[in-house]
Amino acid sequence: MGKPWHDAGRMMQKRNTFTDFIACVDHLLATGYGAAGRVAIEGGSAGGLLMGAVTNRQPDLFRVVLSHVPFVDVMNTMLDATLPLTVPEYEEWGNPNEKAAFEYMLSYSPYDNLQATKYPAMLVKTSLNDSQVMYWEPAKYVAKLRTQKEDDNLLLLHTNMAAGHGGASGRYDYLKEIAFDYAFLLWQLESEKLP
């Protein structure tokens, strides 16, 4: 949809991404394209940030969250200029060494905005050899989430010890990953698990 559309969801307008996503889910539910209590969402990398941010904003809207190699510890990652993508990504997220950008990024960083509440069932996946979102970022996020969540919904961290940012790449290995994701999703959407 062009550069103006892209610019309206980055830097100091990044929160538009999250409010737009929630508005789309609300619209789909209101027009009958889904049912409350049965909404599943999925995203990876920067889309994993989206999963974390919208789940923090409105955890009761979602039943299941699939988050692949999620960029969820925005502040620590963007403050570490030794990581390979940090400095080039200032053009997308902002430079947290500037006060206004720091405060804005902190306002939506999924890790930094976890709270004591009920969260949906979640599968968070990471890869040991990921050069873009380091494996410790999703692991740290899940560890903190476990101390905050006030529910019995399943929270799984799956670490692929042989993959990179794109997940498994073998002839059938990537299909096994997809099957694992769908199995988790369908299991969590079983009717007896509905709120």
Provide the fold topology.
Layout lengths: L2 H5 L7 H16 L9 E5 L1 H12 L6 E5 L5 H5 L11 H4 L5 H10 L12 E7 L8 H13 L6 E6 L12 H16 L7
Parallel strand pairs: 1-2, 2-3, 3-4
Task: Describe, in plain words, how this protein is organized in 3D.
- The radius of gyration is 17 Å and the shape is globular.
- It has helices spanning 3-7, 15-30, 46-57, 74-78, 90-93, 99-108, 136-148, 173-188; strands at residues 40-44, 64-68, 121-127, 155-160.
- It has 195 residues and is α/β, with parallel strands linked by helices.
**Residue share in β-strands:** 5-15%
CATH level 1 class label: Alpha Beta
Q: How many DSSP H or I helices? A: 8
Name the CATH architecture. Answer: 3-Layer(aba) Sandwich
Q: Strand pairing plus helix content: what structural class?
A: alpha/beta
**Strand order across the biggest sheet?**
1-2-3-4
CATH homolog superfamily: Alpha/Beta hydrolase fold, catalytic domain
Shape: globular
Fold-level CATH name: Rossmann fold
Low-confidence stretches: none
Helix content: 40-55%
Distance between the termini: 37 Å
Radius of gyration: 17 Å
Which key terms come to mind for this protein?
8 helices, alpha/beta, 195 residues, Rossmann fold
Offer a quick outline of the entry:
With 195 residues, the chain is α/β, with parallel strands linked by helices. Helix content is 42%, strand content 12%.
